[in-house]
């Protein structure tokens, strides 16, 4: 089947967080796609809708089977059924886990620049953010293991939140890096929450590495947060999962999710997930190819038309990390002025930590005509 990613769908007036902007503005910020849902998933949802009764739902065996089958086939990692727990979203899960596995004033380590909501999940639960900045060198990021060990070895550190693949820079962490993280975490008795929600949106030909698949240490000290919602553009379905092989950790997490009442599905959450994993592979691969073409277009355009900035080479996600350091403007000022002058709405990198001060995050999960509009607006801001 040929899938359509070129048609521009008008999302204004639909209560969309992303598109709740002025008429002249172009939002390319928050991480959801401007593509229509895969027809296979639409069909499954419509079939459930036609039943007409939407009472409380259980977690069916098909939900567990779909996750297990997808990760085995797609990511060469065999999950155990008892290790999976349903939840309504990765962010609610992370906040619940932070709340359950820490006490106030303990440290939670994050590697910055990183997804801004991690900061909220830590601070809102009375803990301290302990940043271990990634090393940015020659246009690429790598982990600073000397600094990471220093932060993990702090007796007040009880938890680390890992972004795998990395958001916002789109870095895929390899076996060696993840193995070192797991080894250090085990050495210093630190639990790792691995946020892997972007794992299925990789450059064609590239594969992400599940943290729990790397070693026994990684499996024993970690809780993995996963979902089909980012890859299949259905965040509003409120459908996700956590995975933990360590029975003690799993019980703690299960208790946390149920205490916070985020462990029960709505009428469509499991159906959408099962359909995505069982029937959505072809759509996903077509979408990844389309994103890859958009990614290459941005690289080429910026290099030839906007020499004052550069793009960090991305291996995953549909987000691009723009280096604006040569402009002399900090990201908050740059983003605000650009939005006012051109209507282009990108995310200021400063929200991802101090390390994002001179960067912008751009969402390229959109039709090519929309992407071209955004690139032209970016050019206008910097050249006129």
Task: State the CATH superfamily name of the largest domain.
Answer: Type I PLP-dependent aspartate aminotransferase-like (Major domain)
Number of strands: 15
**Gross morphology:** globular
The major sheet is characterized as:
7 strands, mixed
Radius of gyration: 20 Å
- The CATH architecture of the largest domain is 3-Layer(aba) Sandwich
- How many domains make up the 3D coordinates? 2
CATH class of the largest domain: Alpha Beta
User: End-to-end span in angstroms?
Assistant: 44 Å
The tally of helices reads 12
SSE pattern, N- to C-terminal: EHHEHEHEEEHEHEHEEHHHEEHEEEH
Uncertain residue segments: none
Strand order of the largest sheet: 2-10-9-8-7-3-4
Averaged pLDDT: 97
Helix percent reads 25-40%
Tell me briefly what this model is.
The protein has two domains: 117 residues, Aspartate Aminotransferase, domain 1 (Alpha-Beta Complex); 226 residues, Type I PLP-dependent aspartate aminotransferase-like (Major domain) (Aspartate Aminotransferase, domain 2).
List the helices and strands and how they pair.
Blueprint: E1 26-27, H1 39-51, H2 61-75, E2 84-87, H3 90-101, E3 107-110, H4 117-123, E4 128-131, E5 135-137, E6 140-142, H5 145-152, E7 157-163, H6 175-187, E8 191-195, H7 216-220, E9 222-226, E10 240-243, H8 247-259, H9 269-279, H10 281-305, E11 310-311, E12 319-323, H11 331-342, E13 344-345, E14 347-348, E15 359-363, H12 368-383
Parallel strand pairs: 1-13, 3-4, 3-7, 7-8, 8-9
Antiparallel strand pairs: 2-10, 5-6, 9-10, 11-12, 12-15, 14-15
């Amino acid at each position: 089947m040929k899938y359509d990613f070129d048609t521009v769908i008008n999302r204004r007036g639909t209560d969309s967080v992303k598109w709740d902007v002025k008429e002249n503005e172009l939002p390319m910020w928050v991480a959801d796609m401007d593509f229509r849902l895969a027809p296979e998933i639409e069909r499954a949802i419509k079939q459930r809708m036609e039943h007409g009764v939407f009472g409380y739902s259980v977690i069916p065996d098909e939900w567990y089977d779909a996750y297990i089958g997808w990760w085995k086939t797609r990511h060469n990692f065999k999950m155990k059924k008892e290790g999976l727990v349903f939840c309504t979203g990765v962010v609610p899960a992370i906040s619940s886990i932070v709340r359950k596995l820490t006490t106030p004033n303990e440290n939670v380590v994050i590697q910055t620049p990183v997804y801004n909501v991690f900061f909220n999940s830590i601070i809102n639960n009375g803990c301290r953010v302990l940043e271990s900045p990634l090393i940015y060198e020659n246009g690429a990021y790598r982990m600073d293991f000397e600094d990471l060990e220093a932060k993990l070895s702090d007796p007040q550190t009880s938890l680390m939140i890992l972004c795998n693949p990395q958001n916002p820079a789109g870095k895929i962490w390899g076996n060696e890096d993840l193995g070192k993280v797991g080894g250090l975490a085990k050495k210093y008795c630190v639990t790792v929450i691995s946020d892997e929600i972007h794992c299925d949106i990789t450059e064609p030909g590239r594969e992400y590495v599940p943290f729990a698949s790397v070693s026994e240490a990684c499996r024993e000290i970690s809780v993995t947060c996963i979902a089909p919602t980012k890859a299949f553009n259905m965040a509003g379905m409120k459908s996700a999962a956590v995975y933990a092989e360590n029975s003690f950790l799993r019980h703690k997490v299960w208790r946390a999710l149920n205490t916070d009442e985020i462990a029960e599905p709505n009428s469509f959450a499991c159906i959408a997930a099962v359909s995505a994993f069982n029937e959505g592979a072809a759509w996903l691969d077509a979408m990844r190819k389309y994103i890859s073409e958009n990614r290459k277009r941005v690289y080429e355009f910026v290099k030839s038309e906007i020499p004052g900035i550069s793009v960090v080479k991305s291996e995953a996600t549909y987000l691009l990390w723009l280096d604006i350091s040569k402009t002399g403007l900090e990201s908050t000022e740059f983003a605000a002025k650009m939005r006012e002058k051109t209507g282009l709405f990108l995310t200021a990198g400063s929200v991802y930590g101090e390390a994002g001060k001179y960067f912008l995050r751009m969402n390229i999960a959109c039709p090519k005509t929309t992407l071209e509009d955004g690139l032209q607006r970016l050019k206008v801001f910097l050249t006129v």
